[in-house]
Design a protein that fits this description.
The chain has 377 residues and is an alpha/beta fold. The protein is built from 15 helices and 14 strands. The protein has helices at 16-32, 43-49, 93-101, 119-123, 156-165, 169-176, 198-206, 222-229, 255-264, 274-282, 298-309, 315-329, 334-341, 345-359, 365-376, and strands spanning 4-9, 35-40, 59-62, 65-69, 82-86, 107-111, 127-129, 135-139, 186-190, 212-217, 239-242, 245-250, 267-271, 286-289. The strands form two sheets. It has an eight-stranded mixed sheet, covered by helices on one side. Strands 11-12-10-9-13-14 form a six-stranded mixed sheet. Pfam families: EarP.
Length: 377
């Protein structure tokens, strides 16, 4: 009998929550031969990541995962042996009561948000006793050996390398998206929240001597982009040129195609958590738009990650990289920060590959979760 897992996902904002849980569910099925139910309260968001899914189905199987609609009026289901509440979502009261009533309660895990802050290591794996007698365990993804690691399929880096090293593969993928790339152009992907510094960055790209081709999947930053271009609306497929900069709007693609988009680009601007991790595995220079929190609490998370990521860079390159990330996230001058980064491009490219290789030496998140369960038996 396969071990049963229930993963609960509340789609709070955009696609980070469902992006992480869908990747995790698929990997647990494909690589660990588990029976996984993924409970999602917003199937429309799920369909954006898995286009073959049905937004109206109460139950469907996608890539071996039993995907269930998580209704507001919970009808009940027998708890699995492992229960994962993603990002502190509140499980249905009836489900929690069914967990409590079992002779052997399930392993209940709170899969928390990704952070590089020092306190994460001390909280990872700690229990949180509940008033009803159950125990919930904290499980933190992370970048060090004392955390739960990062989502990474076993074949991911090999597939990335094959994509980049197979003659014509990159070009064929880009052509499938309608991208005609000038030979000398730097290819940049932009997946971001609204940002007042976007115009400054685009201005300096347009004025540059080197051409750039900016690929922008459908998302929240399109309104700022349209404003810069003087357009009322930017439909999928729209292409505009300003000086040395070509801007092209892409459709919202599946997770697998988004990975390929990141692999294909020379620089990736990403947001949130899921695309942030996938950009690291792409092994190319990157820029992270961190999710804004009250009282700028997200700045501490940004600095904590930079403290890890910039190790091994020269002082000048580390300062330029940090300056760019701070400008993008703290409403500072992106034009100046981008120009300061350019002399360090070869070093940043190599560093991005080295960082991905270093993180790949640690157990991935799905494997760490499975080991945690087995050790709890």
């Amino acid at each position: 009998m396969k071990t049963t897992w229930d993963i609960f996902c509340t789609v709070v904002d955009n696609y980070g929550d469902i992006g992480v849980t869908w990747r995790l569910a698929r990997q647990l099925v494909a690589e660990h031969d588990l029976a996984v139910r993924l409970w999602v309260d917003d199937l429309k968001a799920f369909v954006r990541l898995c286009p073959e899914a049905d937004a109206n189905a109460e139950q469907q199987y996608q890539q071996g995962v039993d995907v269930r609609h998580w209704p507001a009026d919970w009808q009940g289901a027998a708890p699995a042996q492992v229960v994962v509440g993603a990002f502190a979502c509140v499980l249905p009261a009836a489900y929690v009561e069914a967990m409590r009533a079992q002779a052997t309660p399930p392993l209940w895990l709170n899969l928390d948000y990704l952070s590089a802050e020092d306190w994460v290591e001390g909280c990872h794996g700690l229990p949180s006793p509940q008033a009803n007698g159950l125990r919930k365990m904290f499980f933190f993804p992370g970048f060090t050996a004392n955390t739960g690691g990062l989502l990474r399929e076993a074949s991911l880096l090999a597939r990335r390398d094959a994509f980049l090293q197979t003659p014509g593969e990159r070009a064929r993928f880009l052509q499938g998206l309608g991208v005609q790339l000038e030979a000398s152009a730097r290819l940049i992907s932009l997946f971001a929240y609204e940002n007042p510094q976007l115009a400054n960055w685009l201005d300096v790209l347009a004025a540059d001597q080197q051409p750039s081709h900016l690929l922008v999947p459908q998302g929240r930053v399109l309104a700022d982009l349209a404003c810069w271009l003087g357009e009322a609306h930017l439909p999928v497929g729209a292409i505009h040129q300003r000086g040395a900069l070509t801007v092209q709007v892409l459709p919202f693609v599946s997770q697998d195609d988004y990975d390929k988009l990141l692999w294909a680009c020379d620089f990736n601007a990403v947001r949130g958590e899921d695309s942030f991790v996938r950009a690291q595995w792409a092994g190319a220079p990157m820029l992270w738009h961190i999710y804004v929190q009250e009282e700028n609490a997200h700045w501490e998370k940004l600095e904590a990650f930079l403290g890890h990521y910039r190790r091994g860079l020269s002082d000048a390159a580390a300062g330029a990289l940090s300056g760019l990330w701070r400008a993008w996230n703290m409403d500072q001058d992106m034009a100046q920060a981008w120009q300061a980064l350019q002399p360090h491009w070869p070093q940043l490219r190599q560093h991005a590959r080295d960082w991905a290789a270093e993180q790949a030496t640690r157990p991935d998140l799905a494997t760490a979760l499975v080991h945690f369960y087995r050790n709890s038996l």
